[in-house]
Amino acid sequence: MARIPRPRTAVLGTAAAVLLVAGGLLWRTHGGPNASGATAIATAPPPPPPPPPLHWPAEPLHQLLAAVEAYRDEGLHPADYKRDALAAAIAAGRDDPATDALATGAAHALALDYADGHVRHRSRLDWHVVHAAPATLDADLAAAVKADTLGAYLQGLLPHDPRYLALKAALHATDHGDGDDGEDGDADADARRVHIRASMERWRWMPRDLGTDYVWVNVPTYRLALIHGDDVVASHVVVVGAPKTPTPMLSANIGSIIVNPWWTLPPTVLREGAGKHYAAARGFTYVTIGGKPYVRQKPGPDNALGRMKIDMPNPYAIYLHDTPAKWGFAKAERALSHGCIRVQGIATLAGELTQPDTISDAMADLTTHTLPIQKTVPVYIVYFTAAPDADGDVVTYGDPYDRDAELIAALDHDKSYKRPDSAAAVKRSSLTPKRESTTNGAAPEPERAEDPGTNATY
Question: Is residue 6 part of a domain?
């Protein structure tokens, strides 16, 4: 049984302001000056005063500077945390309100970046995994300063997953010594460093507790893993979204396993005239619901979802499913789908999530069976272009959606970076493997569509 790899070298873990809104209290008085029946409105009490400025004694100030100067360990930049100004204040022996304000701002920025990542516009990178910095961050930071434990507190905010620690260890082997990703005469080392830094930043976007049992789909590796604790109990080849229809990065809990699912085409398929490809001989039926035309495909060997769908409710209509197009699993570059995850050997995965006998019994015929999951199993669809292998050695992968360059530009405040235009995107997509027809010559089929009966997605 494989285990999540650990690094070969051991590597060293606001308060949101609470706004009290007092609703207006209306009352009618029955005597005194307002006996006429006038309505009096109670005003909200004044907000509490802000906390007193945080004072920085010499010891926590030195701890802060040491933490900032360790920026290379995390692939970050010292300018974001006022390193030079902090060093000058310490060298001058300053102990004044200006120094306190400087240190508080630098410490808050560093703590927030450790806890929640430096780049905030994650949705632009199609990243929707739920995570946020602790609501008590500012209060915890102040407590650490007063207790002279700032260094340990800041380290505790970072991910401690062994995969992050492996990346952190590997980063030193590519370090230029100046903290930049500039030219050093070794293009391979530069590219490797980009992938590692981008992947470390994405780890800072991840929840610190992933759960005991979870499904892990890393898009650039085209693989799915079922993980229990530190053990990889199952591994599957997958097909992910093509560059034109990329799979969004998200987290969701598995809701049910649907054996022999129906598949519903979106109405746009009919409007585009593609409906002629979906013949009754292949199990398609035409229905009208609420005045809208729909085409649904019956369960069977030709169904676009194959024999099984693992549902995980989410706003992006993404799920795991089987496929009749097995050819995709044999390709090296498997960014081929319309966004959903096609899983090789999905029945085996489903058996791990429930009971193998339950799955085999449900697959004995073509009746649709919905099997609920009795425990919470999160699915994390992620994008790490650098990750440790089973031996703990960090391997870099391709960047099928061209995401790393934009992320590194944001980390480095590179204003010259421009996202690829549509023409470039079309050119890139032309380099990906073309979708092949199935053995019966049917047209390629998108997986994601709305179910007219239940509003679920098939």
Answer: no
